[in-house]
Specification:
alpha/beta; six-stranded parallel β-sheet; binds zinc ion; Met_Synth_C/arc; transferase; methyltransferase; zinc ion binding
Length: 342
């Protein structure tokens, strides 16, 4: 983009209460059948309007049409058993009832393509579309078939690549893979995680991004963060290899966390979506808070490669809070843009 510091969000945004139970993950739909389809489209219109009015430059669907950032994609693959869910520990942190792999995995039909076309028709701004990353998908189910994390990740990468190519054709400008698991399984990231991600991006001409964070602002995550010590240096272990990868943009958590800003220097040459909004608190940042985070990141990231963003998705927050945070993000970016342009 030619505009300095274009703003965007990491992923999900709150759903309207008429569509799904608010402030809850895996929230059940409140509509069904045709009404649900129409409701999802209306929610897409609303979330787009809220982003545009708030001054967000790179817009998204806010994940209005999916119940969860990982499971909704998995639901559309063959080889997955959704009837017999099992409880597994996700990212070594919390238990969830998840589907299982019981046969060969493949993508039977487009998952988000109609939604992406719909969004494309509503806006002239660049669109970013989030898909789950292969490693995070592996970590959000049980596997009774391949029984090998790397093998399964590469099967998922194939399915993701098919979806990503169709999203690109639908007019999506940036395809983002969400890999919170990259902050947990550090050795595996270097052994096969990045390679699987590159497989998912193979042949794409649009920009690609990977989002690596410390998770939604839910209790299991905030409790986990308390055990991580004074400085969070997970990124330090994976960024050197990510810097050498073919991925264009890295989206990461910064504001209010304990990530030392100097780790950003490890991404030299990459575009960086700097998390300047904390999604784990309902307290709304001031524009000056956001500006301070951007200024700090600017010590390590070139101005033309710095994209202010949120730390993670905002689905569990109230709509008022999320709107306030979007406006603060845009206003903070405005402040630093003026400073740098002066
Ligand atoms: Zn995240």
């Amino acid at each position: 983009m030619t505009k300095l510091f274009p703003t965007s969000t990491a992923g999900s945004l709150p759903k309207p209460s008429w569509l799904a139970q608010p402030e809850q993950l895996w929230s059940p739909w409140r509509l069904e059948g045709e009404a649900l389809i129409a409701g999802k489209n209306d929610a897409l219109r609303v979330t787009l309007q809220e982003q545009e009015k708030s001054g967000i430059d790179i817009v998204s669907d806010g994940e209005q049409t999916r119940q969860h950032f990982v499971t909704t994609f998995i639901e559309n693959l063959s080889g997955v058993d959704f009837e017999n869910k099992k409880t597994v520990r996700i990212r070594n942190r919390y238990d969830a009832s998840v589907p299982g792999i019981v046969g060969p995995v493949s993508r039977q039909k487009p998952v988000f393509i109609d939604d992406a076309k719909f969004l494309r028709a509503q806006t002239d701004r660049p669109i970013k579309w989030a898909l789950p990353g292969p490693m995070t998908m592996v970590d959000t189910l049980y596997d009774d078939y391949y029984k090998d994390r790397k093998t399964l990740a590469f099967e998922f990468a194939k399915a993701l690549n098919e979806e990503a190519k169709e999203l690109e054709a639908a007019g999506v400008n940036i395809i983002q893979f969400d890999e919170p698991a990259f902050n947990v399984f550090l050795d595996e990231v270097n052994e096969w995680g990045i390679e699987a991600l590159e497989k998912a991006c193979e042949g794409l001409k649009c920009e690609t991004a990977v989002h690596i964070c410390y998770g939604y602002g839910i209790k299991a995550n905030t409790d986990w963060k308390k055990t991580l010590g004074e400085e969070w240096r997970h990124y330090e272990k994976t960024f050197p290899a990510i810097q050498k990868s073919s991925i264009d943009i890295i989206s990461l958590e910064c504001h209010n966390g304990r990530v030392p800003f100097e780790v950003l220097a490890l991404l030299k040459g990459k575009k960086v979506m700097v998390g300047a909004i904390d999604v784990a608190t309902p307290e709304i940042e001031t524009a000056e808070d956001v500006a301070a985070t951007i200024r700090e990141a600017l010590k390590y990231v070139d101005a033309d490669k710095l994209y202010p963003c949120t730390n993670c998705g905002m689905a569990p927050l109230s709509r008022d809070v999320a709107r306030g945070k979007l406006a603060a993000l845009a206003a903070g970016a405005d402040i630093v843009r003026e400073e740098v342009s002066a």
